[in-house]
What does this fold into?
Amino acid sequence: MSAPPAPGLLARPLSDVLAALASQHELAGGGGPAAALTAAAAAALTAKVARGSRASWIEAGGAIAHAESLRMQAQALIERDADAYREASSALMHSERTARSGVARPALATPAPASADRERLAGEALIHAADLSLAIAVVASQIAELAADVSRSCPPSMRPDALTAVALAEAAACAAAQLVEVNRRLPADDPRRVASCDAAATALRARERAL
It folds into this structure.
């Protein structure tokens, strides 16, 4: 009997999540979940600072709601990205094993349908992973912009936390954008590449504005 699947990352203690990110076997691609987790932490810090600003900032309530909405989006992407990279890795490994096993066979004029289907599935899985990395980059850039706004309106005593949120969100946006950039199934002119770079640039400008 096979062991039951491990619970989702968000249902586990933080020490287990970090161990999963460090493992060579548990997560097929740890970069995406790590970026989404970082973005969620940045959104949580942003909400915290906004809550501490209610006495002096009339728009704090809207900032709190926005930060919590972005945090939920980032949290959802933690699990979705982990699942997507697991599927992509499985499809790629299966496709590569099939290709290696076919080296000794007589060459065919056209690939076998099963092989072509596996290649298509591997490609679709990687494209889906790129879509999720882009989604992480976009939500992280939005968190960076919000945190920058909060940093300019919060009490001075809370500004360090707000600036930390901006920096974390920028790092998450840049990391996720890099995952899009290195995705080998995306054409050089794929619009996802441009969109991810734009998200990273937006996060950078937010940090510059906050400082």
Summary: Residues 29-80+135-210 form one domain. Confidence is low (pLDDT under 50) at residues 103-108. Helices lie at 14-22, 31-51, 60-101, 113-151, 159-181, 191-210. The radius of gyration is 20 Å.
